[in-house]
Write a structure and sequence with these properties.
- Keywords: Aminopeptidase, Hydrolase, Metal-binding, Protease.
- Its cofactor is Co(2+); Zn(2+); Mn(2+); Fe(2+).
- Its EC number is 3.4.11.18.
- InterPro entries: Creatinase/aminopeptidase-like (IPR036005), Pept_M24 (IPR000994), Pept_M24_MAP (IPR001714), Pept_M24A_MAP1 (IPR002467).
- It catalyses: Release of N-terminal amino acids, preferentially methionine, from peptides and arylamides.
- The protein is of the alpha+beta class.
- The protein has a single domain, classed as Creatinase/methionine aminopeptidase superfamily (Creatine Amidinohydrolase), CATH 3.90.230.
- 29% of the residues lie in helices and 25% in strands.
- The strands form 4 sheets. The protein has a 5-stranded antiparallel sheet with strand order 7-6-8-13-14. Strands 1, 2, 4 and 5 form a 4-stranded antiparallel sheet that branches.
- Strand 10 and strand 11 form a beta hairpin.
- The protein starts with 6 loop residues before the first helix and ends in a 5-residue tail after the last strand.
């Protein structure tokens, strides 16, 4: 069931979204060569505690994970892209890092992700990150009232094809609001003009992610981290948005 949010409820989600954006900016600032992923997890955990927020990940137990998730941020390095389990790993020059964060404040959730290179990034990695960012922007631009969910999915896929990247549809975006995951599912590939009608009050997380060489993935031995099947690099960009009468509004804007 899809719940449409009131303008007042959307503004409450925006409060959470601004916090998520600020914490992700802090992660990016601290993700330097020689920094351990566990240090970044500790930073996020402390920010959430200070704000009185609630991590959407802590104790999360979906069917695709092994037991409850016991961290507050997903951190994925190089060939990892989704549900990255923070672990004892020291960042190296040239690593490609994805940070994905979802929290709830006063009963309203927001979710966002960024990918970036640590130290000196390769041209290929920077291109991959840019593709996800452009796909995210295209998906947001398509989230107009009166359009269909497939318009968002098709816009994302058009960017991926333009860059020559394959598209996995097993994992994608989702509705969000009172909880992190709500209906509808937002695939990263689809047919324009098809699917759920976009109406003011719809709040969704749009999250294009691509692996450079494959659309196949597997779950790491840690039971959580999703990696590319061929070991190629991955990137992921995500925003929580609201469809309004005036068009899409980004609730996790980092500007």
């Amino acid at each position: 069931m899809v719940e449409l949010k009131t303008p007042e409820e959307i503004e409450r989600m925006r409060v959470t979204g601004r916090f998520v954006a600020d914490v992700l900016a802090g992660v990016r600032e601290r993700a330097l060569v020689g920094v351990n992923l566990l240090e970044l997890e500790a930073y996020v955990r402390e920010r959430i505690r200070e704000r009185g927020a609630v991590s959407c990940y802590w104790d999360y137990s979906p069917s695709f994970g092994r037991g409850p998730f016991r961290n507050t941020v997903c951190l994925a390095v190089n060939d990892a892209v989704l549900h990255g389990l923070p672990h004892d790993y020291v960042l190296r020059d040239g690593d490609l890092l994805t940070a994905d964060l979802a929290v709830t404040i006063d009963g309203w959730s927001a979710d966002s992700a960024i990918s970036f290179t640590v130290g000196t990034g390769s041209a290929d990695d920077l291109r991959l990150v840019r593709a996800t960012e452009e796909a995210l922007a295209a998906g947001i631009a398509a989230a107009q009232p009166g359009n269909r969910l497939g318009d968002i999915s098709a816009a994302i896929a058009d960017v991926a094809r333009g860059y020559g990247y394959p598209i996995n549809t097993e994992y994608g975006g989702h509705g969000i609001g009172r909880t992190m995951h709500e209906d509808p599912h937002v695939a990263n590939n689809g047919r324009a003009g098809r699917g759920f009608l976009l109406r003011p009050g719809l709040t969704i997380a749009i999250e294009p992610w691509f692996a450079a060489g494959t659309d196949k993935v597997y779950t790491d031995a840690d039971g959580w981290t999703i990696r590319s099947a061929d070991g190629s690099r991955c990137a992921h960009s995500e925003h929580t948005i609201a469809v309004t009468a005036d068009g899409p509004s980004v609730l996790t804007s980092r500007n």
